[in-house]
């Protein structure tokens, strides 16, 4: 199993902190460093710093040598597909071929309104996602793109230079409903679930398999991954202390009994057991959301006691 550090860059991560976190992720053996793509705090705290994530990834690419870098996810409402593809191609070259592109329909209506982005109904955003994914895929594959759709028109655009990677991975995600699973089977190199229980992950894997088989694709060529919150402690007391800080940052109530099944949390042994349950359900990579980014001690605990064991699964 691979393990990625997932950061919420819009929740007040300063540039010096970005450098510290990237250095730690590389030193501690994480496979990847990913971030969400927002213009402001998703927790509703307007004063929190929020640097542009694609500019941050480009800079971090010069600082690291092996971490895979990417977004979970870049909303289709923020950028035209050629802009997103060109940014990804640029980071791909800067990193020597270590970028992945997460693309999503977007969800935060308040953010869109605050920054002047249109926020059409979900069905329209899903149609935009289908068009954008097709265009970004073709551009990153080096094709000259001729596309006349409801939302985008391209007349022969092609990226130069071509990416370093033969195929830049595109990540789609959600709950693997019928439309999303079909789109993933057609275009995705990875499908990412968010905050689900192991049984829900197992059911999603079945839906993705069926969508792949329906178009003659090998289901094994579409890895299923999971982004989930991670809070651990060396003791139960340390865990509860950390949990209280994370809940304060996220503005959420304490999880009700059973809700923590969607997290990798608890003592190290408890977290390992939760992660193993996701692995058994078909999850190949865990994106561990480290919301309290100032808590370097937990990051060290993850790197020393959790990551190596998970990577041996």
Write a structural description.
- An eight-stranded parallel beta barrel has the order 1-2-3-5-8-9-10-12, surrounded by nine helices.
- With 313 residues, the chain is α/β, with parallel strands linked by helices.
- It starts with a strand and ends with a helix.
- Helix 1 links the parallel strand 1 (2-7) and strand 2.
- The chain has one domain (2-225): TIM Barrel (Alpha-Beta Barrel).
- The model has no long low-confidence stretch (mean pLDDT 95).
- It has helices at 15-27, 53-63, 81-95, 109-115, 122-140, 178-187, 198-214, 236-250, 268-280, 296-311; strands spanning 2-7, 32-35, 68-71, 74-75, 99-104, 145-148, 153-157, 170-174, 190-194, 224-233, 264-267, 283-289.
- It contains ten helices and twelve strands.
In short:
The protein is an alpha/beta fold and 313 residues long.
Helix content: 40-55%
The Rg value, from CA coordinates, equals 19 Å
Secondary structure class reads alpha/beta
Biggest β-sheet strands, sense, barrel: 8 strands, parallel, barrel
Strand order of the largest sheet: 1-2-3-5-8-9-10-12
**What is the N-to-C order of secondary-structure elements (H for helix, E for strand)?**
EHEHEEHEHHEEEHEHEHEHEH
Poorly predicted sequence stretches spanning 5 or more consecutive residues: none
Number-wise, the strands total 12
DSSP helical segment count: 10
CATH topology group: TIM Barrel
Name of the CATH class: Alpha Beta
Alpha-carbon distance between the two ends: 5 Å
> How many separate domains?
1
Percentage of residues in strands = 15-25%
Q: Per the principal axes of the C-alpha atoms, what is the gross shape?
A: globular
What average pLDDT do the residues reach?
95
- CATH architecture term: Alpha-Beta Barrel
């Amino acid at each position: 199993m691979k393990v990625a550090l997932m950061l919420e860059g819009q929740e007040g991560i300063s540039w010096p902190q970005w450098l510290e976190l990237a250095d730690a992720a590389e030193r501690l053996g994480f496979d990847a460093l990913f971030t969400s793509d927002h213009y402001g705090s998703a927790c509703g705290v307007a004063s929190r710093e929020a640097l542009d994530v694609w500019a941050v990834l480009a800079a971090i690419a010069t600082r690291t040598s092996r971490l895979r870098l990417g977004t979970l996810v870049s909303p289709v409402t923020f950028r035209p597909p050629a802009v997103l593809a060109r940014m990804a191609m640029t980071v791909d070259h800067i990193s020597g071929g270590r970028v992945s592109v997460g693309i999503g329909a977007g969800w935060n209506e308040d953010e869109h309104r605050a920054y002047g982005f249109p926020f059409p109904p979900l069905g329209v955003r899903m149609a935009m996602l289908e068009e954008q994914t097709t265009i970004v895929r073709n551009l990153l594959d080096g094709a000259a793109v001729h596309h006349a759709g409801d939302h985008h028109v391209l007349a022969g655009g092609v990226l130069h230079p071509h990416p370093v990677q033969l195929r830049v991975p595109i990540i789609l995600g959600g709950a693997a409903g019928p439309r999303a699973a079909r789109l993933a089977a057609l275009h995705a190199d990875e499908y990412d679930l968010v905050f689900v229980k192991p049984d829900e992950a197992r059911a999603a894997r079945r839906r993705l398999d069926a969508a792949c088989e329906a178009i003659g694709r090998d289901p094994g060529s579409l890895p299923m991954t999971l982004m989930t919150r991670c809070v651990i402690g060396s003791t139960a007391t340390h865990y509860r202390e950390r949990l209280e800080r994370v809940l304060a940052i996220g503005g959420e109530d304490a999880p009700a009994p059973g809700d923590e099944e969607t997290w990798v949390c608890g003592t190290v042994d408890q977290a390992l057991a939760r992660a193993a349950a996701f692995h058994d359900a078909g999850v190949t990579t865990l994106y561990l959301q480290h919301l309290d980014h100032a808590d370097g001690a937990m990051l060290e605990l993850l790197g020393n006691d959790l990551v190596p064991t998970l990577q041996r699964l």
